[in-house]
Amino acid sequence: MPCRRRNTRQHRLHANIGVHVKRQESDMEIIKSAFEKLLVSENIDNVNSILTDLQVDQKYQMDDQTYPHLEFKITEKEINELRREKILNDENLITDVSNQNTLTKLLYAVAWKNGDLKKIRHIVEGIESTNDDDKENALVFYQFGKYLTKKPGEPIIDQHVLRAYGIFKALEEKNELEVERLTKLSVVTKKEKGLIEGYKNWLKKDLHEGLRNCENYAYHVDKVLFAVGKKVKSENNKKARAANKGYKNMQADKVK
């Protein structure tokens, strides 16, 4: 099936069950609706239409100017070549780029200025890894390395994507405490390893076969979940600030 064709079955399904997404729809309903649509999406166009259908504000969506689609991939063979050229050392850290081209030196300078040179090690480990069991830190960069291999079903992963997926599963299990915890999630730690594996398995097994046959489909799913996950966090922060402001006003009234 073509990967860029509109899924008429998806729209018939939503029309039949009366799904009418409104701008003021609750965060939990947004997440449930996003997954309902993802599970019946047969191609990339279906996935790319979801945020528009749900009327998710552009401010929550991944900015293609800041994060343009990465067309390239990095293989284990290429990493080994960097070691042979003494650009990477045995600890997977960049050693010296003095003799490299100007672009390489510019990118190295940006990583140096941002204090990100040590993060490259975790990306390299992700590119080369065949087993996730031993990795307990820098999981976002580690998984990003896996994504860069462009193997099917390897997503980018970040806090917003995991928040959306985790809440979806917690709602299925009626686990309100987990929903509350994930709503506030801000740092991905080893506690989320199970969630990461669950999401990757969901990408590889639960989505429509037509979508899974599309090149780089996980990237497009990530973009949807990034937006709804970010929206949930933003709305939760607004509610927390409002509650805090109300509490302070109440305390001020008591003083009066």
Shape: globular
Give the N-terminus to C-terminus distance in angstroms. 70 Å
Q: Give the helices and strands as they follow along the chain.
A: HHHHHHHHHHHHH
Count of strand segments: 0
Task: State mean pLDDT (0 to 100 scale).
Answer: 87
Give a description of the structure:
The structure is a single chain. The chain is an all-alpha fold. It is 59% helix and 0% strand. It is built from 13 helices and no strands. It is globular. It starts with 7 loop residues before the first helix and ends with a helix.
SSE arrangement:
Elements: H1 8-16, H2 27-40, H3 44-48, H4 50-53, H5 76-84, H6 102-113, H7 119-128, H8 139-148, H9 159-172, H10 176-183, H11 193-205, H12 209-212, H13 217-255
